[in-house]
Write a structure and sequence with these properties.
By secondary structure, the protein is of the alpha+beta class. It has 3 helices and 2 strands, in the order ββααα.
Length: 117
């Protein structure tokens, strides 16, 4: 989204800042400057972008969708296998599956069988 809502040159907002993480912006200010006929735009972030990012490797469950490498997946095989499923029978098997966890487990196992891990 575009986050500058004040005029930056005369009555026009022509200096724009786009972000997909507007929650990281704490404050936005515009002010006059002698260096330009545009107003200076100053953003205050909730973190220091100059600090190295600490990467915490998350352990991935080998039996979850996150473990599947969809970049190398055989989608033709996946589509064939999914089209061979008797969906009405599967629905009947999962009728007592109130939270959908059994259905999700069946789909997960199907995808993991044909997706390189």
């Amino acid at each position: 989204s575009q986050v500058i809502l004040e005029p930056t040159r005369n009555e026009n907002t022509i200096d724009l800042v786009f972000t997909n993480k507007s929650q990281d912006i704490i404050e936005i200010q515009t002010r006059e400057t002698q260096m330009s006929d545009h107003r200076l735009v100053q953003l205050t972030l909730g973190y220091n972008p100059m600090e190295p990012k600490t990467h915490h490797a998350k352990e991935i469950d080998a039996h979850s969708f996150r473990a599947a490498d969809f970049h190398l997946a055989d989608f033709d095989s996946m589509n064939r296998q999914l089209s061979d499923i008797d969906w009405p029978a599967l629905k009947r098997l999962c009728d007592d599956d109130g939270d959908g966890s059994e259905f999700l487990e069946l789909i997960t196992q199907t995808v993991l069988q044909i997706t390189l891990i």
